[in-house]
């Protein structure tokens, strides 16, 4: 087993992705399964977006991503954040390219779901009344 080059973290809502980079052939594993078996095509493309900024780095390293919590798209976003941070850490020029493309890939997204309120069905929705 080859030595890890770094560990990076990406978060989105309740999903937390931990990325380990090792020298390799460009393989991407999410929870020990190949990327091809993960979610739908939109989620896979979202994960791959940061890798296109530095394809030489992508093709010469393996990416092992462990994700906990969240839904499919939150997991995809968290994995993309972790990958973008890893690639940006590798090369300053690529960091500027990613920042100009989409700053959120490096800075993260602080939005969270609003908590449900007491005596209501959801965070905002009230029970309907027919006499008003």
Overview of this structure, please?
This protein is elongated. The protein has 5 helices and 5 strands. The protein is of the alpha+beta class. Helix 3 runs antiparallel to helix 4. The termini are far apart. The chain has one domain: Ribosomal Protein S5, domain 2 (2-Layer Sandwich). Strand 1 and strand 2 form a beta hairpin. It is 35% helix and 22% strand. A 5-stranded mixed β-sheet has the order 1-2-5-3-4.
CATH topology: Ribosomal Protein S5, domain 2
Distance between the termini: 69 Å
Radius of gyration: 18 Å
Structural class: alpha+beta
Supply the CATH class. Alpha Beta
CATH architecture: 2-Layer Sandwich
Descriptive tags:
alpha+beta, 5-stranded mixed beta sheet, Ribosomal Protein S5, domain 2, 5 helices, elongated, single chain, 132 residues
Brief summary of the model shown:
By secondary structure, this protein is an alpha+beta fold. The longest helix is centred in the middle third of the chain and has 19 residues.
Topology:
Layout: E1 6-12, E2 15-23, E3 28-30, E4 33-34, H1 41-48, H2 55-59, E5 61-68, H3 72-90, H4 92-101, H5 104-107
Parallel strand pairs: 3-5
Antiparallel strand pairs: 1-2, 2-5, 3-4
Helix pairs in contact: 1-3, 3-4
